[in-house]
């Protein structure tokens, strides 16, 4: 079988693969400062209030970095919501869904439409070097002493009983949750 327009077909295939690759490789732009400590990370809540992680020391912190254009992020948010809801009474565990769209209103509308109650934040400072990434979703879990105990790039099953138990254990001591 002889193709009538082989050059045009090759160009179209090349264009489609290049477009898909560019979409898949879309990166989150974050200013890098290697001398910034993780406790210096500042977040902005929906009311515009600036909160530093150092103010949350003594609590276990679950940070989930996500964006509305990120399909894996969207796919894991329902399980994050379930984990958040199941641990809502735990005063020593704080959750933060950190939107990376750099559009707090868009993220708030997204959460409201899906009835998510996870506390929503935007970045208020550069990401510390320990949290740098070019990919999301990313989840960072910080122990009560401020130590990053998990940095997981990619999806997490937040409904895992093991994860839930380890978060509870972290409220009591430094647990090993490296299985992620």
UniProtKB/TrEMBL annotation:
**Which is one Pfam family of this protein?**
Redoxin
Extract the Gene3D superfamilies matched here.
Glutaredoxin
Domain Thioredoxin, by residue range, is 32-176
Q: Which InterPro entries match?
A: Redoxin, Thioredoxin-like_sf, Thioredoxin_domain, Thioredoxin_ResA/DsbE_sf
Name the PANTHER family on file.
PROTEIN DIPZ, THIOL:DISULFIDE INTERCHANGE PROTEIN DSBE
> What is the official name of this protein in its record?
TlpA family protein disulfide reductase
The protein's organism comes out as Sphingobacterium hotanense
